[in-house]
C-alpha cells in the first residue's frame, strides 16, 4: 500500500477490540499473514462460519475499499475485516450470528460498538450488499487460481444452482431490509439483528 486513508470508526486506537493497550506506533507495522489468519480463523471457528461465507466477506471488504475510498492498513484492518464478516454471516448463513454473539468471542468489545460499526459499514457500502451469483463465481475462481499459483489446495466447490439462487435472494432481501431500517430513522445503534426472517444461532462458541 502507498497510503493509509482510514476512518475513525475502524481505527483500533479509537475503538480497541481488547483491553490491551494499543502501542503508540501501532499504525507503522503491517501484520504478517499468520497473524491475519489467526484473527479470521478465531472468528470463523467460534461462530461456526463456512468457507463460502469467507468469499462473501471478501466481496464486502473490497466493495468497502472502493466505495469509501479508504485503505486497509495496520490501524484498521481488524475492524474492517470484522465488519465484513459480520455482514457476510448475516447474509450467507441460514442461522445468522448476532452482534452480541461476536461480543462473546471478542469479550472486550461492546454491542453498542458493534452496532455502530455495522451501521457505518452499511452506509459506506451505500447499502449495496446484494451478491449476484456471477460476482460470487468471479471471486471463487480468482481465489482458486491464486491457490493454484501458490501450490495450495482449494477444496471449496462452486455454488450449486440452488445455493446461488438462494444467495441472491437472501442478499436482496437483507439489502431491502437494511434500507427500510435506514429510512425509518431508527436509533443510531440500529443493527441487522432486527431483520425479519433471520434466525438466531443456538450454538456459537465451541
From TrEMBL:
Task: State the name under which the record lists this protein.
Answer: CCY1B protein
The transmembrane segments are none
Keyword Ligase attached? no
Q: Which keywords, in A-to-Z order, does the entry hold? A: Cyclin
On whether Amino-acid biosynthesis is a keyword of this UniProt record, the answer is no
Q: Which domain of life is it from?
A: Eukaryota
Read off the Pfam families from this record.
Answer: Cyclin_N (PF00134)
Task: Give the GO molecular function terms.
Answer: protein kinase binding
Amino acid at each position: 500500500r502507498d497510503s493509509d486513508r482510514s476512518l475513525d470508526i475502524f481505527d483500533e486506537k479509537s475503538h480497541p477490540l481488547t483491553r490491551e493497550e494499543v502501542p503508540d506506533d501501532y499504525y507503522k507495522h503491517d501484520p504478517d499473514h499468520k497473524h491475519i489468519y489467526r484473527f479470521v480463523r478465531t472468528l470463523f471457528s467460534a461462530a461456526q462460519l463456512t468457507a463460502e461465507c469467507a468469499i462473501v466477506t471478501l466481496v464486502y471488504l473490497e466493495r468497502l475499499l472502493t466505495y469509501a475510498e479508504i485503505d486497509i492498513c495496520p490501524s484498521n484492518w481488524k475492524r474492517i475485516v470484522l465488519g465484513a464478516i459480520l455482514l457476510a454471516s448475516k447474509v450467507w448463513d441460514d442461522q445468522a450470528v448476532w452482534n452480541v454473539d461476536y461480543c462473546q468471542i471478542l469479550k472486550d468489545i461492546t454491542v453498542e460498538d458493534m452496532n455502530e460499526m455495522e451501521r457505518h459499514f452499511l452506509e459506506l457500502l451505500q447499502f449495496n450488499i446484494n451478491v449476484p451469483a456471477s460476482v460470487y463465481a468471479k471471486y471463487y475462481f480468482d481465489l482458486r487460481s491464486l491457490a493454484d499459483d501458490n501450490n495450495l489446495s482449494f477444496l471449496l466447490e462452486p455454488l450449486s444452482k440452488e445455493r446461488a439462487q438462494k444467495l441472491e435472494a437472501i442478499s436482496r432481501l437483507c439489502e431491502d431490509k437494511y434500507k427500510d431500517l435506514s429510512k425509518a430513522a431508527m436509533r443510531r445503534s440500529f443493527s441487522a439483528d432486527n431483520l425479519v426472517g433471520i434466525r438466531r444461532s443456538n450454538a456459537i462458541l465451541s
